[in-house]
Structure formats: structure tokens, C-alpha cells
Amino acid sequence: MGAWGTGPFDNDDAADWMLELEATGDADALLLDTLDSVGQGADASEATCAVAAIVWMLSAPDGEFASATKRPIPAPILTVQLRSVALRAIGHILAEDAEWRELWEDADEEEPIQQLEHYRQLLISDDHTPDPRSF
Prior knowledge:
Blueprint lengths: L11 H12 L3 H10 L7 H14 L8 H4 L10 H14 L5 H8 L4 H14 L11
């Protein structure tokens, strides 16, 4: 993964995922497929795409988050199914032996891990409209 920052869209995998999102005719299916692909032992690329998917699905319904993602694609309705699948993916990504987590820890970068913990809390809470400036 080529990365130029610690943000969820500051890497090649997330950029490629967003291009795929723009091109797809079924954003909901792509989102579920991306999140479902993250299982125990997922590689960093799958996890990185899932993090981008999670941030996109948490984007504000009025589109104000589009400036942070640089993509004006409206986020999906946050259903119980989406929350559940996303929370399961986050659990795998944040596992102590997960490649994504290990890569950030090896680089002495805690911010991406803390951000993902924040996204988990947003999914658990009733308030799922984050301030885009927090990303």
C-alpha cells in the first residue's frame, strides 16, 4: 500500500476503492462485499479498503462529508445490518495480530488506530453523523 498520510483516504488502496465506488451501479453491494471480505487474518489491503468504506458509510446524509472524501457520493442509510457487518470488520481489523494494526504500530502511528476506535463508537452510538473535520 502506498500511503502519503495517516488518514483513511491517504493511500492507494482507499483511492482505488473510491474509484470503484464511483464506477459501480450498486454501492450498497460493494460496501457489503468490502466489509464482508475482512475476516480474521485479513491482509492490510482488504482492511484499508474496509476502513475507507466505513468512513464513507458514516458520512453525513447532507453530503458535507464529501469534502473530506473528495467524492460527492451520498452515503447509504445506516441499517442495523450495515452497523453489524462494519462492527465485525472493525473487530478483525483492530485485533492484536491484524496486519493493518501491526503496520501502523510498527510505524509508531497510533492515530489511525484511534480513528478506527472512534468509528466503532460512532457505529455503536445513535449519533452517526460525525464532524468531517475530525477525519
